[in-house]
Amino acid sequence: MNITIIIGWIGSFAAIVVSILIAGELIWFADAASVFIVVVGSIFAMLATISPSQLKSVGKYFKFAIFPPKFDPALYIKELVEYATIARSKGLLALEESANNAKDPFMKQALMLIVDANDPDKVREMLESAVDHTAERHQKGADFFAKGVTFGPAFGMMGTVVGLVSMLQVMGEDPGAMGTKMATAVITTLYGSVMSNVVCAPLESALRSAHGNEELCMNIIIEGVMAIASGSNPRFIQEKLEFMLPRTGRGGADKGKDK
Questions:
Q1: DSSP code of residue 1
Q2: Does pTM surpass 0.85?
Q3: Cα–Cα distances in Å, from 165 out to 162, 169, 181, 189, 248?
Q4: 129-135, long-range: CB within 8 Å, 24+ apart, which pairs?
Q5: Hey, is 117 helix, strand or coil?
Q6: Cβ atoms within 10 A of the Cβ of 205, count?
Q7: 22-81 confidence digits (pLDDT tens)
Q8: Other CB atoms within 10 A of residue 2 CB
Q9: Whole-number Å distance between alpha carbons of 50 and 56
Q10: What is residue 251's predicted lDDT score, i.e. its pLDDT?
């Protein structure tokens, strides 16, 4: 589970509620019409920006943001070093059994391509193309929530206009109701900001972060497998791949071996 987004949501909503309680009463900020126009309006506007075939993926976008797949670059490097050791001592054909037991489908595909003695340049091209297609799929999910960042304030402003029009309509007939109508108009702006900055923006960021982790591991697999195919020394492969990690993440492959 993406615990940071959960903590962020809890903290953000708690801060809003506490500030409301300090300023007045919670009931003052509860308005069904405002929630409806902002939340329902934004969601349907977001859906209007995607293709029918993409509609079934909306639930997956939310799921991946909250429960992102785990990609540990250090473990991938450790695994690739082990494959390199096998290939170095027994030859590339000996990797076939190991490749079939690989848990990551991309790792398995990459290893099988070099085991089958395919042209290295074509193998790299195929694997990099797979990375590009994965990036494109993930980009669609992040873009979906990015639209919510835009639509939330827009529908909040629409709700404000609706509230102001309603206020002007009762101005001559019931001046006492003007305060309530004005409050509704302003509250809608608040809901639009919450929809944008508290709900959609973190979801967009979480998806981009999850994709970044997966893309890094896919690129590590590509560089590792190509180095194995060229017969590079396992120690050299480890050092080469660890240069792809942030400084704090280097040396993780050795730590994995020690365990």
A1: -
A2: no
A3: 5, 6, 9, 15, 57
A4: 130/106, 130/218, 131/215, 131/218, 131/219, 131/222, 134/211, 134/214, 134/215, 134/218, 135/211, 135/215
A5: coil
A6: 18
A7: 988 888 888 888 899 999 999 999 999 999 988 888 999 999 999 988 889 999 999 999
A8: 18
A9: 10
A10: 57
Question: Rounded CA gap, 218 and 71, in Å?
Answer: 9
Q: Which residues of 233-242 are buried (b: 16+ CB within 10 A; e: fewer)?
A: ebeebbebbb
Q: CB–CB of 54/140 below 8 Å?
A: yes
| DSSP codes joined into one string, 71-82 | --HHHHHHHHHH
Please name which of 251, 257, 245, 145 lies closest in space to residue 205, comparing C-alpha atoms: 145
What pLDDT does 100 receive? 85
Identity of residue 115: V
The residue assigned the tokens 């790299």 is 124
Q: Which residues contact 200 (CB under 8 A, 6 or more apart)?
A: 42, 145, 146, 148, 149, 152
The parts of the chain modelled with pLDDT lower than 70 are 172, 174-177, 247-259
Report the pLDDT value the prediction gives residue 172, as an integer from 0 to 100. Answer: 66
Interval 219-230: pLDDT, tens: 999 999 999 998
- Runs of H (alpha helix) within 117-233: 120-169, 178-194, 201-229
